[in-house]
Amino acid sequence: MIMPGGPEKLEELVRAVREGRLPEDKVDLSVKRVLSKLLASKGHRSAGERPSLEEHARVAYEAAAEGLVLLKNSGALPIDRAKKVALFGVGQILTVKGGMGSGHTHPPYVSTVLGAARERGLSLDEEVARRYEEALAPHKGDMEVFFMDEPDMPLVREDIVGEDLVEASAARSDAAVVILARVSGEGWDLSPEDFYLREDERWLIEAVSRAFRQRGKPVVAVLNVGFPVDAWSWSDRVDAILLAWQPGQEAGRVIVDALLGVINPSGKLPVTFPKRLEDVPSWTFGGEPRGSPRSVTYEEDVYVGYRYYDTFGVEPAYEFGYGLSYTTFTYSDLSVELSGDEVRVRFKVVNTGSVPGKEVAQVYVKPPKGKVGRPFKELKAFRKTRTLQPGEVEEVEVRIPLRELAGFDGRGWVLEKGVYRVLVGSSSRKIHLQGDLEIPVETVFPA
Fold it and tell me: Average pLDDT in the 325-347 region?
């Protein structure tokens, strides 16, 4: 098995065999090893030679739906199916299913946002849609590779629609949806241009916002991306932001169903979205030599991600664990109990809104000040509720091993004595319940 692979690697192997540099029996042995693992895998045994692609598509849809994160909503979502919607952005056609490298797959199809919108029977501004289809027609070959092979997106500028068409669409449509798409992968560093919007992308946001909102019509942004991007500097130009990530072969259907409210977004951010690139603690780790580094020293210590932002008081755009819903939830009745070698945390979550939804409750622990350097607080457990109907309550219990409350002092894991604050919230910065846990004696766990 070759990682990373590529046609040039295969050609090199073939040449080596033909030239006698690589014995063919060695190749056969390697093939046998790979196939033996594949044939013994649970996936192969359950799927056989004829896997159920329909069942796989259902799982892909459900997985993508669970991960959608609603970053902003000022009443623009969900969209009334009877409203006429204008779709902007090449991402409506070049909808990114997944990443490059190990994130790359070969699905039987990819549902695009435009295709799904038509399939779901939305009333669309077809003149705007045709403009994008015409602009992308010369890239048909690239698009086939984009969907079925490595998703290296053809660069088509977002200002292809022109301001006149945006204004005309705003006059005849009820709402606008702007899809911003990014391809991501592995094996190279991101640049500031990957984080911030390009000039043509910012133009599109500004033009659509100005034309629609001055007429009292909402603008929704969809982020079809695989990593944190600038979602703050332009957030006041739109009424809602849906983070779809790169949601696989059912991407378009999942995005459209979320816009319509068929899916109620229930995902939470597994990373912090910073306001500015310079707020990222590792941004200064350029490596040596500069420009083409051969080595990089990471200096965050234990203050990685939200641990850095929370400990040093840096305000993010959207914090770790953040995510909105079309409904609301309240938390109550916190109980924190030390039971043997674990902590039992119990509380209730109730859907206080008007539509069904799920909530991801998160349990953080703030350690006492001691001899071991520790972040301000750390996530120790989380639980996603079942779908709660309006007014329905779920009693949540999580169990945290005491070892997971310890800090590393260079020799072992030390659970220092003192009062630990247990924080239950809907994100790392939205804490709804607090309780104390006293550890009477210090315990050292082996490394």
Answer: 97
